[in-house]
Amino acid sequence: MQIQINTDKNIDGNERLITFYTQELQNELERFDDKITRVEVHLGDENSGKFGLNDKRCLIEVRLAKKEPIAVTSHDATIEKAFFGAVEKVKKVLDTTLEKMRAN
To answer: Sign of the C-alpha dihedral, residues 31, 34, 36, 41?
Structure first.
């Protein structure tokens, strides 16, 4: 599973941040590892320097072999909360998608 972390100009995409989120994704999506070819994470601050509630965004796009990409988005007050909210969403969508694939 290849993981790519992207940040917008308002989020510092330092090596420590990228390493942390990469490891978290590997741990959280480990049971889907044989089905996932690529994961892209897009972290952003939609209000830039201004204050705003739930203005941090995390979009996770998962590519399954020979299937259309699955994308989920989560907004929250911090990047960490948005990231973990998106991870929970993507796990639910993957469970449902893979269950449907098994049924066919």
So the answer is: positive
